[in-house]
Amino acid sequence: MSDVDRSPITSGEVNQGRLNSRIPDGPLAEKWDRCKNELKLISPNNKRKYDIIVVGSGLAGASAAASLAELGYRVKVFCFQDSARRAHSIAAQGGINAAKNYPNDGDSAYRLFYDTIKGGDFRSREANVYRLAQVSSNIIDQCVAQGVPFAREYGGLLANRTFGGAQVSRTFYCRGQTGQQLLLGAYSGLMRQVAGGNAKVYSRREMLDLVTIDGVARGIVCRDLVTGEIESHAAHAVLLCTGGYGNTYYLSTNAKGCNVTAAWRCYKRGAFFANPCYTQIHPTCIPVKGDYQSKLTLMSESLRNDGRVWVPKKEHDLRPPSEIPDEDRDYYLERRYPAFGNMVPRDVASRAAKERCDSGFGVNETGKAVYLDFKRAIQEQGEEKIRSKYGNLFHMYEKITDENPYQVPMRIYPAVHYTMGGLWVDYHLESTIPGLFVLGEANFSDHGANRLGASALMQGLADGYFVVPYTVGHHLASRELKAVTTAHPQFDVVKNEAQDRINRLLSVNGNRSVQSFHRSLGEIMWNQCGMARNAAGLQLAMDQIRALREEFWSHVHIPGSGIDFNQQLEQAGRVADFLEFGELLARDALMREESCGGHFREEHQTAEGEARRDDEHFAHVAAWEFQGPDAAPVRHVEPLSFETIHMSTRSYK
Ligand SMILES: Cc1cc2nc3c(=O)[nH]c(=O)nc-3n(C[C@H](O)[C@H](O)[C@H](O)COP(=O)(O)OP(=O)(O)OC[C@H]3O[C@@H](n4cnc5c(N)ncnc54)[C@H](O)[C@@H]3O)c2cc1C
Question: Does the CB atom of residue 178 touch ligand 1 within 6 A?
Fold first, then answer.
C-alpha cells in the first residue's frame, strides 16, 4: 500500500457554498469511461487487506457486497431483517428498465437518458443519468447470467413492457415479482462469497451510528436486535444502502421496517442530505380503508399497460361501475394526455387523480378513489392472457379487497411510495464524508424530482454492480488510511452515545405508544407535505412536528428493556429520527419555491394545474448540512447545468 500516489482528494468538497460533484470533463458519452480510466486501482493481492462495511442487503447492498467480495475485499454486510434476502427490494413488482431495444421500437441509451431527465423534471445530474442509461444493458446481462427468470417471448428473447414516461417498451420483468427474483440473484452472488469466506452477513443488526476518524468514515456502531448488545465494526470504507424514507408518512407502500435512521445519523455526523422534499406519490395503490390501517399496498404501474383509468363524468355518481356506460365515463388521463394516455409519469397521474377526487368525481365511500379497469383488455386479449401478465397482482388485490378485478374495476388512489431525496453523493457515489458511499434509494443521485417507474431497481443495481466497485478502490488507493480497529477510542465515544440514547428512550416511561406518535406524524406529513404543498401549510407542519417531537420525548411509552429483543424500542428509535427528519423535509419543501416533479407547490402552477418550475432560481440540488440539535441546518446548492438536453416545460400531451 506504499507505492500509490496519495493526492489530496476530498469528497463533496464545499466551495463557496457549492458542492463539488467530481463530474469528469469531456463529452457526456465519454465521461464514465474517462472516470474509470483515471481511477486509481488496488492490485488483486492487496484487496484482501481492506475491510468494507455494507449496511443494507437490498438490491443496492447485496449487489455491491457480492461484487466487492468477488474482487477480493473483505466484506461485512448488515441488515435488520432476519435474512439478507428479506430486504424491502423483494417487494418490487413491475420491472427494471434497460435500453436494450429488443422490441426494435427505437430505444437507445440516449433515449433512456432523455426520458429519465425529463421524467425527473430537469432536477437531476446529466452525467449520472447518462451513466445509468449506459450501464443499464450490462445489468440485464449480469442478472440473466445469474439465472434471473425474466419473462421471455416465444422465440426466447427477453420480453419487455412499457412503464410511465416512455414511448418505448424497455421494462424487463419477472411477472409481478421482479424485485424478488433480482434480489435472489444478487443474494446468491453474495452467499457464494460468504461460502468462500470473503463476506460475512450480520442479520438482525441495526446500524445506530457512523464512526469517523480524522474526518473519514471508519466504521459503524450497531445494535444486535436479538440480544440488545451494542457492537462496533471497523473498516476502510462504509457503504450505506439502507433504502428510502417513505415511512416518514406512516402510511406508505414501503415495508414497515423501512426507515431513515442510518442516513439520518450519518447526516448528523456530517453527510449532507439532498432534496429531502422530493417524495414520490404513486398513483395506483389500494385506497386507505380505516383509521387503524398501518400499511398501503401498491398495484404496480405495469397494470396501466392494459388497465384504463377513469371516473364517472357526473359528480357523486353512486351507480356501480358496471352500470355506468362508456359515454358517462371520463378516461381523464387519455383525455388530458393523449400522447402518453394512461402511461404518464407517476407525479402527473397522481395529481390528476387528486384533482378529479377533489372536484367531486371520486368513487368509493370516501370519494377518494378512481377506477383502473381491465374490461377492454380482457375483451381484446382474453382473461388468460391478462392472468399470465398480472396474475399475482390480481390475486393480491382480491385477497385484500375481496373484489374480483377480472369482473369489476380495481379502485385505486395515490400513496407515498418512493423517495428521490437522500444523502448527497458525488459522481463516485461518495458523500460529503470521505469514505462513506451511499447507494440505491438511500442516495439522491439519479431521479431528480420524480422517478420513472422501473428505474429504482436499475439504479440500485447500477450503483452496486457497476459503479461502486470502481470508485471504492479509488478511495482506498488515494487516501492515507491509518490502521484502525474498534479499540480506537472514537468507537467507545460513539457506542456510549448510542447507548445513552437508548437509555433516554426507555426512561421516558410515558403513556402514549410509539405507533400513535408515528401515525400523528404521518397525518401532518400527508396533509401538509403530500401531493400539494403551500407555504402556510409547510410552516405549520414544521411547528406541529416540533411540538410532536417534544411530546414524544416526554410521553412515549416503550415496554420492555434494552437488553433483549424489543421491537417497540427499535420502532421508537426510528420514529424519533422520523420526527427530526420530517422537519427537514418540510423545510426543504418550504425553501423550494417552485413546483417540479413530485414537489407541487400550489403557489406555482399553470392555469391548467400543471407544475411550474423556476429554472432561474431553482435549477439546483439543495443539500442540507447539520449544524447541531438546536440550530437551523445550512442549505448548500449544487447548480445543475444541462449541456446536452435543453430544459423545457415538461409535457406529456
Ligand atoms: C411495493 C413496491 C414495489 C416496487 N416496485 C418497483 C419496480 O417494479 N421497479 C423498480 O424499479 N422499483 C420498484 N420499487 C422501488 C424499489 O423496490 C426500491 O427503491 C429499491 O428496491 C430499494 O433498494 P435498496 O437496495 O436501495 O434498499 P432496500 O431494498 O430498501 O434495502 C434496505 C436495506 O437496508 C437495511 N437497513 C435499513 N436501515 C438499516 C439500519 N439502520 N441498520 C441496518 N440495516 C438497515 C435493510 O435491512 C435492508 O437490507 C418498488 C417499491 C415498492 C415499495
Answer: yes
Q: How far apart are CA 635 and CA 633, in angstroms?
A: 7
Q: Is the pLDDT of residue 10 over 90?
A: no
For the stretch 314-330, pLDDT in tens is: 999 999 999 999 999 99
Q: Where are the alpha helices (DSSP H) in 147-292?
A: 178-196, 261-268
Does the C-beta of 94 come closer than 6 Å to ligand 1? Answer: yes
pLDDT in tens, 387-412: 998 998 999 999 999 999 999 999 99
Contact 289, 366 (CB under 8 A): no
Distance from Cα 166 to the centre of ligand 1, integer Å? 23
Q: Which band of pLDDT confidence, cut at 50, 70 and 90, is reported for residue 50?
A: very high
* 192 burial level (CB within 10 Å; 0-12, 13-18, 19+): middle
In ligand 1, which atom is closest to the CA atom of 259?
38
Q: Which pLDDT value is given to residue 8?
A: 42
Report how far ligand 1's centroid is from the alpha carbon of 541 (Å): 27
Catalytic residues: 346
Q: Locate the ligand 1 atom nearest the alpha carbon of residue 173 and give its number.
A: 8
Phi and psi based region of residue 236 (left: phi greater than 0; alpha: psi -120 to 50; beta: remaining): alpha
Tell me the three-class secondary structure of 295-344, residue by residue. CCCECCHHHHHCCEEEEECCCCCCCCHHHCCHHHEECHHHHHCCCCHHHC
**pLDDT value of position 69:** 98
pTM equals 0.96
Other Cβ atoms closer than 10 A to 387: 14
List domains and CATH numbers for the chain. Answer: 14-278+420-478 (3.50.50.60), 282-417 (3.90.700.10), 499-618 (1.20.58.100)
Write the residue with the smallest CA distance to atom 30 of ligand 1. Answer: 243
pLDDT digits (tens, 9 = 90+) for 337-367: 999 999 999 999 999 999 999 999 999 988 9
Out of 89, 210, 241, 298, mutate this one to test ligand 1's pocket (max ligand atoms within 8 Å of CB): namely 89
Q: Please give the sequence-ordered ranges of beta strands (E in DSSP) within 10-148, or none if there are none.
A: 14-15, 18-19, 51-55, 74-78, 96-97
Neighbour-count burial of 487, counting CB atoms closer than 10 A to its CB (0-12 exposed, 13-18 middle, 19+ buried) = exposed
Give the percent of the chain with pLDDT over 90.
92
Closest approach atom of ligand 1 to CA 86: 49
Closest to 237 (Cα-Cα) out of 463, 46, 467, 438: 438
For residues 389 and 520, the model is more confident at 520
Q: Name the closest-CA residue to atom 27, ligand 1.
A: 243
Residue 12's pLDDT band (boundaries 50, 70, 90)?
low
